[in-house]
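Hi, here's the filled form for the chain we discussed.

Project: internal
Contact: R.S.
Residues: 264
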Amino acid sequence: MTRILVLQNTAEREPIANPATLFEAAGAAVHSCWAYAGELPGEIRAYDGICISGGPNSAYDDVAFIHREHTLIREAGGLGIPMLGICLGSQLLASALCGRDMVFRRSSCEVGFKTMTAEPAMDSDRLSATIARPLRMFVWHNDEVRAHHSDVVVLAGTEDCPNQIWRFRDRPIWGIQGHPEVTRTQALTWFDQKRWTLDACTTAIIPDCACTKITGARLQSAAPFCHAAGASGLSVLLAGSLCADTSGAIGLLIVSDQSAAAKP
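And the returned structure, exactly as it came back:
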């Protein structure tokens, strides 16, 4: 049985969308650690793959658990353990493996569903080559991983964020800036619960809505957009699997969500 370590970086032990439950549903043996609260494993050699979740922090924060995750990522990379980072997890991978200056603060917050443009490298990537296109994914981020680095292979991006999905060299290490684990329904709930965070933003870019600037006074009117954007949304399953070469790998399966096709 595939053994997956999930590092949960959210302020809540059980977030709205939890990758751990999806790995379990796929038949993997999951060890979930609430890294945000300081829970990290002492030994990682037994795992076939590591999934690093999103969270409210930045990869460059001077926080104990962020430093410890940097160390764990570098150790896992040295051991050849496959890794998948989501949002903050992607930024931590880039920061730990490519340098702390790889992650920067954007001038605006990007939130909503967005269509990705596949790069040529995606066609031969063993994780993402079979992803159905066009690919739409829910995004919500203030920080971003730089697209130009010799160790970064960009697989998909957008005009506003050129590095949405990437791989570290030719290694089984992938980062996803968006939230492929978030379904349409979960996105709506998340938006409602975290609406206050956008009040603190001077600018929030709402994708596929003419990059409208949303201020605190207009946030109440932004909710219907989320419903409209979800009309062609995706249901995503993150599953533990083994590659044909018998080395551990994390599989990403994205399936069209036909149930979300109808307008609310």
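Let me know if anything looks off before we file it.
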